[in-house]
Amino acid sequence: GVMSTSQRVKLLRCENLTLGYEGRPVVTGVDFDVHAGDYLCIVGENGSGKTPLMKTILGLISPLKGKVRAMGGLRREEIGYLPQQTLAQRDFPASVREVVLSGCLNQNGLRPWYTREQKRTAAQAMERLGIAPINRACYRELSGGQQQRALLARALCAANKLLLLDEPAAGLDPHITEELYSLIQTLNRDGLTIVMITHDMRAASSFAS
Q: Of the given ranges (10-19, 103-112, 193-202), which has the lowest mean pLDDT?
């Protein structure tokens, strides 16, 4: 069963955040903790500050007020991120394996090659997400669902504790969406902490802890 909150390690604390665009506050007084094993869904209207919240957690932007603290030994580089897909990304001319491996880059500094360990990590991520058989396929020729699996595997390569997902099912048909959600749920049951932005209330109520 689910461990009670008191037994679980706190990974992240968001304290009294004010978030906004170009200095204009959109949302104020955001306070919450993320514990290891959580599946947290952030639901809200467009423009309500969901993406800035995620970018603040990642340290890509600073909050207008308040702070985000990584805790429980969590390091920023252990946080994986699956941003919203853009059309340009969908046309990326690389193999699935290259896309997944590129997730290791943020651990490499500027080294242009991959270690054996990283190649193993990438292979395991592709295995877990069921895309090992298509690792040589060209990313731009994949279906939307396969592309999301590749990007999910890429995020897993980058991080092994906490995964941030921004509308991961955007633009996918209902059947593929279900598959993707059940995959994410499996990752969560296997011990990965998930923070997901979604406008899909049904998904949020089915999957969020």
A: 103-112
Give the model's pLDDT for residue 2.
57
- Please count the residues of the chain: 209
Other Cβ atoms closer than 10 A to 86: 8
Using CA atoms, how far residue 10 sits from 13, 58, 119, 155, in Å, is 8, 16, 30, 21
Picking from 161, 135, 6, 138, the residue whose alpha carbon sits closest to that of residue 70 is 161
Q: Which tokens in the block code for residue 202?
A: 């049904």
Instruction: Classify 16 in phi/psi space as left (phi over 0), alpha (psi -120 to 50) or beta.
Output: left
Q: What are phi and psi of 198, to 5 degrees?
A: -150, 155
The total of other beta-carbon atoms located within 10 Å of residue 30's CB is 19
pLDDT, residue 64, reads 93
Q: What is the pLDDT of residues 93-127, one digit of tens each?
A: 899 999 999 888 766 566 667 889 999 999 999 99
Tell me the helix, strand and coil percentages in the chain, rounded to 5. Answer: 40, 25, 35
Task: Retrieve residue 150's tokens.
Answer: 């590749």
4 vs 17: CA distance, rounded Å: 26
- Is 102 in a helix, a strand, or coil? helix
Phi and psi at 83, nearest 5°, equal: -70, 170
